[in-house]
Write a structure and sequence with these properties.
12% strand; P-loop_NTPase; Rossmann fold; ATPase; alpha/beta; five-stranded parallel sheet; 7 helices
């Protein structure tokens, strides 16, 4: 387990990336969401790894990238914040294929015991070129994560619906408590 690896996950469009940007501005190490990087790096609109074309291929690539991110983040520094990560990727893989990936991957690659969960927040949810799914799909994804995290023995801390700076203060205070 990497006690300094902190997972920030939850509902798509719930403010995770904004929170990570704030933590980075404060000098913390952050790792960008694998899914957004995969979509940006796709070779074209018919690339098979895109989530709206082949969700299983996308999830497998996200697992690979999340594992590589964890390896790259190892070192003697403080908190490392992950925008999504292996739990999200493995959960998506299970949803797309039925393959029991989540528990096995998590056992070998744990995050800090406290995981921060961004709740559904329809007022700030927006689709974009990298996130094409709507709010209903985001809620479904959130439900999977909300159930999976406690089953994996993580302490789930729901992020408050407040300003980005206040959320960052909350995360740091919670980790230091």
């Amino acid at each position: 387990m990497a006690d300094n690896f902190v997972l920030i996950t939850g509902c798509s469009g719930g403010g995770k990336s904004s929170l990570l940007a704030e933590l980075a501005a404060r000098g913390y190490a952050v790792v960008e969401e694998p899914g957004r990087r995969i979509v940006r790096e796709a070779q074209g609109p018919d690339d098979r790894v895109l989530p709206w074309i082949d969700p299983a291929a996308f999830a497998r690539r996200a697992v690979e990238l999340a594992l590589a991110d964890r390896e790259a983040a190892r070192g003697p520094h403080g908190w490392v914040f992950f925008d999504r990560g292996l739990v999200d990727a493995a959960s998506a893989l299970e949803a797309a294929t039925g393959e029991p990936a989540l528990r096995a991957l998590d056992r070998a690659h744990r995050y800090h015991r406290r995981v921060f969960l961004a709740p559904p927040w329809p007022e700030i949810h927006v689709a974009d070129a990298e996130r094409r799914h709507g709010f209903d799909a985001a809620l479904e994804e959130y439900g999977r994560l909300e159930a999976a995290l406690p089953a994996l023995d993580y302490e789930v801390v729901v992020l408050p619906r407040t300003s980005v700076a206040a959320r960052a203060d909350f995360v740091i205070a919670t980790l230091e408590a």
